[in-house]
Amino acid sequence: MSLKASSSVPGRRAARRGRAVGPRLRWWLVVLLVLTGLLGANSVYLAAVSLAEWLSGRLLQNWFYQIMFLAHLGLGLLLLLPFVVFGAGHVWAARYRPNRRATRLGWALMIAAVVLLGTGVALMRVEGFELKNPELRAVTYWAHVVTPLAVVWLYLLHRLAGPRIRWRWGAGWAAAMVVLVGGMAWMHTRDPRLWRVRTPEEGERYFEPSLARTATGNFIPARTLMMDEYCKECHADAYEGWFHSAHHFSSFNNPVYLFSVQETRRVLMERDGNVKASRWCAGCHDPVPFFSGAFDDPDYDVVADPTAHAGITCTACHSIVDVHSTVGNGAYTIEEPLHYPFAFSTNRVLRFLNRQLIKARPELHKRTFLKPLHRTAEFCSVCHKVSLPGELTHYKEWLRGQNSYDSFLLSGVSG
């Protein structure tokens, strides 16, 4: 026997006697199992939402879903390092083990895990790195969906072929996953828009004599309705058209309107002791101060306050969810839009993550800001048809004002 061969035999014997998962590898295994548990619970939640959407035909994604989707990406990326370290160390430590069945199953498990992580990375939509071919993307997606089942099955077979399984630890791990999934399901029912709300003291009467209403009856934060620069990041052409439009200059940033409503509010203060009747104007011209609750303040600074110069913003129009009728005078319902996580952040990294989430999961964005009613003439009627109410004029209960909508209906272009 050669010196080389004789020296390799003790090494193989030592490797066979050694533990396949030594003390150092055990820590990596713990990290791997913890991350796998978190990612597993997260995946069950995401899969449950997708299945519920498929069965109901409705979009069920919300703000928390986007957080969990981002967590899915983050946990998957965090899993890469411990997987590589533990996988390489475990393969090396078990290279001469006599249990060939466990070894073969281990290799199969390793391959399945590589496919799972690889397809996950391939599905990421990041600027400069994106799998765009729809057929290839569909194959990659389903491989990513099915592979976890193979990984779980192969892991059980691999462990059954090796040392005795500590089922008590496994049961505890599974119970923790169930608790996590239950917590996620509960969080899915929470609406962050209801966490901090301001409600008009007058209730629904706050909005009168305008016919505009908020979906909840609460105020809508001004910053939520003033997202034009945010919209510009992806819709620069639409923003440019809006910026120079009459919609942008519908409010106190229009000198003619400024003078008219200032005079109206002055007369109302002298006549009624308040400016409430001027809400009739605000429902269409001043949605930001009106729905945020600033408009009713007699000391509201119509010149210096930022909300006074917002006009009819992108978000104000695209957050309308219902048209009550075609009588005009702002006969619509608006809701606070559900923005993606980090939409209001000034941190560049978080803003980047926000854009990537919209790019990866645009369905919620589409549903929130583009509804079928936005493509109808009735949508325009809510503000392009007005009548002067008695609360404003103290003359008659009804006087016709401008009426572009009916003129459109009676014209040849309406069909």
Number of individual domains: 2
Mean pLDDT across all amino acids: 88
Given helix and strand content, the structural type is mainly alpha
Summarize the biggest pleated sheet.
3 strands, mixed
Beta-strand percent range: under 5%
Give the C-alpha Rg: 31 Å
Q: Within the largest sheet, what's the order of strands? A: 1-3-2
* Low-pLDDT residue intervals, each spanning 5 or more residues: 1-7
Discrete helix count: 18
* Estimated helix fraction: 55-70%
Query: Could you tell me how far the N terminus lies from the C terminus, measured between alpha carbons in angstroms?
Result: 98 Å
Summarize it:
With 415 residues, the chain is mainly α. It has helices at 3-17, 23-56, 63-93, 100-123, 134-160, 167-188, 222-225, 228-232, 236-243, 255-272, 279-285, 287-292, 314-318, 348-360, 363-369, 377-381, 390-393, 404-409, and strands spanning 213-214, 320-323, 332-334, 385-389, 398-403.
Structure description:
- With 415 residues, the chain is mostly helical.
- The chain folds into 2 domains: 23-193, Fumarate Reductase Cytochrome B subunit, CATH 1.20.950; 203-410, no CATH class.
- 58% of the residues lie in helices and 5% in strands.
- It is built from 18 helices and 5 strands.
- The chain has helices spanning 3-17, 23-56, 63-93, 100-123, 134-160, 167-188, 222-225, 228-232, 236-243, 255-272, 279-285, 287-292, 314-318, 348-360, 363-369, 377-381, 390-393, 404-409, and strands spanning 213-214, 320-323, 332-334, 385-389, 398-403.
- The strands form 2 sheets. The chain has a 3-stranded mixed beta sheet with strand order 1-3-2.
- Helix 2 packs antiparallel against helix 3 (63-93), helix 2 (23-56) packs across helix 6 (167-188) and helix 4 packs antiparallel against helix 5 (134-160).
- It starts with a helix and ends in a 6-residue tail after the last helix.
